[in-house]
Amino acid sequence: MAALVPIALFFVLLGTVMLGGLSGAVATASTSCQASGGGATVDLGALPADAVAGYSGEQLVNAALVMNAGASLGLSVQGQTIGVMTAMGESGLRVLDRGDLAGPDSRGLFQQRDNGAWGSYADRMDPTTSATNFFRALQRVTGWEALSPTAAAHAVQRNADPGYYTPFWDPAGQVVAALTGVPVETLNPGGGALACSPGGGAGALPGVPLPPGAWTKPAVGPLTSVYGMRWGRPHNGIDIAPPCSSPIYAAAAGTVVGTGPSTGYGNLITVDHGDGVVTRYAHMYPADVLTAVGQTVVAGQQIARVGSYGDSTGCHLHFEVLRGGAFTDPLPVLASVGVSVQ
Description:
Layout (H helix, E strand, L loop, with lengths): L4 H15 L38 H15 L4 H15 L29 H5 L1 H13 L9 H9 L11 H12 L42 E3 L2 E3 L2 E3 L2 E3 L6 E3 L4 E9 L3 E9 L2 E6 L13 E2 L4 E4 L11 E7 L2 E3 L1 H7 L6
Antiparallel strand pairs: 1-4, 2-3, 4-11, 5-10, 6-7, 6-9, 7-8, 8-11, 11-12
């Protein structure tokens, strides 16, 4: 296993370069974005005059009120940004006094229903109260910090489409950065991580915690098949089987060099990590590929959702590692950088 040590060192250095750091934050904002603590308070008297990511005026005021409600509960910047993302998706950051066909009684920034869970009509129409109730519900979701942003929001809102909030993650990060002065790095629409200061003790906030060496599990679920011969032919990767539509994460920092249909694989995503190391992710349905060729990703960034497309008998992620163009067993590679899939 000694030959794998340079790979681990390579990703430590690469992760340090790509994740960057936070500086120049307002006095009330921590430079750490760890899942607990480290939130930012917004000065309502110093909001941007210009539009940010297409949001302006009362929308930025409402985003600031959402941020401050999260800060009052001790949430991190990650949690606060999930709140802003959700309000963007539900109401466009406007206090709506109307619902829709799915929820005609829905009201406010978060389109909260009149079912007793979200308080009175006045509560649902008040940005601070409605945001506080959203964040309290988020805090009751076991392990919400380890979910992708859209999955965390869905656990509270129960939207018909669990991936509905994905397109709002990047704009939410831009708004949060503009409101707080904290340079938040927003990543792909797959629900990426917030970059944090190395001094703050965090490298990123992905869907699963980062182990040493800046690698992470590509999916969270049982290991159902290993590398080697299977059914009389080579099985060039490992299979991890979380529920259908569960997040698939980039195992390490790199550049997406391939996405799309591939015989037997259904859809295949290929990420080049440099130094001759490539990872591949398979069996996603077309709509569940959440990244594009040329995109830079960090470890733990969601790039897809688990499917059963191609030569597959059930929902799972088929995960491969190549070194120098040759397939290699992913388990010892992951073990060498501190990741246990089982």
